Amino acid sequence: MIYLRAASPDDAAQIATIELDNYEHAYRGHGFDAWLDQQTIEKYVPWWRERLHALTPGVEMLVAMDGALTVLGFGRLGPARHGPADGAGEFQKVYVARKAHRLGVGRTLMGAMAARLHHLGYQQARVWVLTSNQPARRFYEQIGGELVDFTYDELLDDGTVLPHVGYGWRDLAELYKLVPS
Length: 181
Ligand SMILES: CC(C)(COP(=O)(O)OP(=O)(O)OC[C@H]1O[C@@H](n2cnc3c(N)ncnc32)[C@H](O)[C@@H]1OP(=O)(O)O)[C@@H](O)C(=O)NCCC(=O)NCCS
Hints:
alpha+beta
């Protein structure tokens, strides 16, 4: 059974651990190793605690937990930050603890986030994914995401440019029906 709730500042350590561990395994060797070397748990825990204390208006964070209430994954949703100004929402982050990959946690988080975005008034939403992140692209395709016809280049603070592709869902109601929350 997977449980969901809004994230709290007390989740900062578990969220930071899941994010950094996934960075290491999903992104090393993808052209920004020097930037990855600079990302540390000492930096990420207070960063997340601060953000969870004061989320940007319109942005929400959810965590998925197992029966022991251990955090297995997290997702952040809000307004689209890149691409055309078409009123879409965005799945801004989706990370699942590696020990829980392929157990349906990501699918559950996406369904719950779709429901929240729909509740907030969005009809459609998209997600940006590093072009070379093939496993995540397969995941989004599997749950109905369609490749959008524009791209986005993320600029890291060390000047590295990371090309991203976008996947879109034109009807969020379909996504959360497909993925019960
Ligand atoms: C991508 C991610 C969120 C998927 O979460 P998850 O809980 O493992 O995914 P689910 O178990 O819900 O998978 C649902 C379906 O998506 C597809 N899928 C998921 N991971 C996949 C992978 N690595 N390769 C191919 N297909 C995959 C499968 O069809 C899967 O169904 P199945 O396991 O019954 O075959 C997770 O792997 C993750 O956190 N990856 C690292 C961080 C990342 O890349 N995040 C996205 C940033 S944009």
